[in-house]
Write a structure and sequence with these properties.
The complex is a heterodimer of chains A (514) and B (441). Chain A has 514 residues and is mainly alpha-helical. Chain A contains 25 helices and 6 strands. The chains are: A mainly alpha (514), B alpha/beta (441).
Chain lengths: 514, 441
Amino acid sequence: MLDAAVSRRGLLAAGAVAGGLAAAGPALPAGAATSSAPRRTLHERRLHLLRRATFGPTPHSLAALSRGRMSHWVELQLHPGRIDDPEGDAVRALYPRLQWSIPQVRAGVDEFSWDLMFQLGQATIGQAAWSRRQLFEVMVDFWSNHLNVTNPSDNVWDNRHDYDRNVVRRHALGTFESMLIASARHPAMLRYLNQADSTKDAPNENYGRELLELHTVGVDAGYTERMMVDSARIMTGYTVDDDTGLFAYDPSIHWTGEVRVLAFSATNAASDGRDVAYSYLRYLARHPATAHQLARKLVVHFVADQPPPRLVSHLANVYLANRTAIRPVLRELFASAAFRDAPRKMRRPYEDVMATLRVLDVGLHRGSDRAAARSGLESLYWMVDSAGHAPSAWGLPDGYPDVATAWQSAGGVLSRWNIHQSLAAAWWPDSDHVKAANCRALLPRTRPATYGGLVDALSARLLFGRLPAAHRSAVLTFCGVHAGTALPADSEWLGWRLSHLVALILDAPAHLVR
Amino acid sequence: MTSDVTTESCPTCPATAADTRGVSRRGLLSGMLGLTAAGYVGLSAPGMSTRLAFASTPSAYEGDVLVVLSLRGGADGLSIVVPTGDPDYLMKRPTIGVPQGALLPGDGIFGLHPELKPLQPLWQSGAFGAVHAVGQMDPTRSHFEALREMERGAPGASLRSGWLDRALTQRGTGTPFQAVNLGDALPTQQLAGPAPVLAMSSVNSFVLDIADGDDATYAATELARWRRALTTMYDGASAPIAGPASAALSALRTTVGLKRGGYTPAPGASYDKDSDLAMALRDLARLIKAGVGLQVAAVEFDDWDMHDDLGTLSAGRLRGKLRELANALAAFTTDLGPRLADVTIVTLSEFGRRVEENGSAGVDHGHGNVSLVIGGGVNGGKVYGSWPGLADADLDDGDLAATTDYRALLAEILTKRCGQPGISTVFPGLADGPLGIVRAR
């Protein structure tokens, strides 16, 4: 126990050791946290990269990364089209309707059915868990939250899947400007934020406000309420054709007259306001405040809840210099010293479940039964939903929060513990619906001689390191043994209780962070 | 700096309490574990009792249970407690305005939306009142900023904790159940800060599945095994990791007992099982009756952001929303019965809506709003506050002005009903005095 007099910094430093792995660095004495973070070894840097740029390391991904330079691995991940992706293809093949156009859906699916929206959620989970294009999937999650269109939600039953394909996935590693413009004219966004029925006589301010506050410059950029109204006016005319469900421009509802938002102004005299809107969106995408907001969010996601300001401003400059291109920003981010030395970040529930699936080698159901495979993904969907973190299901347009403090919840941590057990023991989804975890396969080929050896082997396999001594001894006490107790072949801890042991090790704070 | 998670951008780390945050939580945890362990001496199967779990935990708290019901998204107060006597109301809302003849009797120029019918007996008996034109003195029309500021409750001050956390921290009389956040996966930022919070989606789901089964003895043994291991593992982790884990581990034995015991609401209390709000309030009534030391409960009821299709009395989104709200609250108060004397419920919403309707039969973000207050100590049947009027010249940028600081209402409840000793710590800089909407206990 720590003395009550130690400072918070000292506590956090101690927490880093207790919460992480002993191998992550030497324990800092209380009060010494003002010195820089411990340098990570090459092995630790590889793990760190996999914890951030993928949904969780696996023995396989660690081996693949270790075969070359980390920068080459990042470069390949930045070009997902160059990566063969049989696992991702298998998931996508289960959901052919997600490739349908909006008119196809309206012709071929029951009106207002939520099926396709749930299918999108399930396909998203399958790709996040198993696609080899991991960084791409991480960025899809990032942008889906940044330009959130809640899935499922009313009014987007016929187009949410198309938004995922043609806005988020198409531009996830392209330019933000293209993504923003694509989102602004996508029927899903137009309906979600009520732009579809905003008119010159009665502008609906929902989209015009969030375009500024959430999508681009941010609430502190200095725009006034009057400018916010102009933002809504500029976008009038952007609507959805009720017959086709497709984007339409209607000059008869476009507000005309001078508009001014921050340093953007236009006479906006023509009833066809598309050029004005286009210039406005480009202006916003290239605004320094947008650059800062996006850089900040990326650094919060990949580096630290408290983003190092120098890295943020550097990345903002890279973004502007590259005309809003996303790849150069990520390249710089992963190459930065701030990334290399970043403190651990708490895994959010979705990230915890994905990492657990990956490290336990839970996979898509094998064989020809597509219904079973889809049912397995459906179970996983409800699993993350019960943890409060189904993909894109956040009800508000700002997307899920990305800092640890927003997720502090007793019920949340309890649900993680239950999920670890359920997946390790293949309770649900079971082996009829997924390629379930096989805890025996997590053990080394040769049975460890002692329980201490067993715990160490499982820690190495599941956490890629050694547990801190106190945690190791808690696990041994849990089993009612000592480190040196001989491990017999018929031990219950190699039998019916093995999944308990695996779950408990995944419950360790070391797995709660990335 | 090194830590397993970063904590600095955290709204939950109050500047003043930052240095003691981790320590106090840990100290509290170890204290509680000792006490609860002592409470179980002599019991054959730990987890069988709910009351005994905290019987030896001294709790000096004797005030009301304060239930804060957050209507997130910006509820349209003008459609809930309707200023039907204001000539501009129907003029500015030709489509969505509630016609005078349909309203339930309210107070003065105000009538109640007809969907509040299930709450009418409470209005008539004086256990239900309202404050109108209430809001934040420093207005913003951004959901996210408005919600953050409302839950922080300290405009102009640099505090990063939530107002409920400051109230609890000041009392310092807690049990693991002192503050419960029900029904939502993410805790409200009103409770952000050092005071332990128990966030749960429901009582029955708050179990460790591996130690939940028909065989009570086996379950109790397994629970003890897991609790011991997890307690050691999370001891010493940084606050955002250790706090929720210790709250979960402390509460588990009690929730196991509650689940095992089941729950039957009082006769006449009819909770809609398809309503998340109703089920959250049902759990809340259950916790209140179980006597687990509840002081504060936060419940969220979302989806009030009606930019479109707010609707009329016969169609649209609002009527179903209000029906769900009224039915759930009616069931809750019925279920509580005489215990309502020790409960105060207050609704908060980050802002009201624009007075004038938009082109989508909805209303955009506005400012002043209504708060509903229900409880045994309420001087109800009245609408409190100062009505600024809906004429163009009286509006704040097109919106109902806020003439009452929402914190004045909360301060009055905390002071009179919860025995809060120093309100200036909870709401620094609050200038407005009490409205008279509740009686002192």
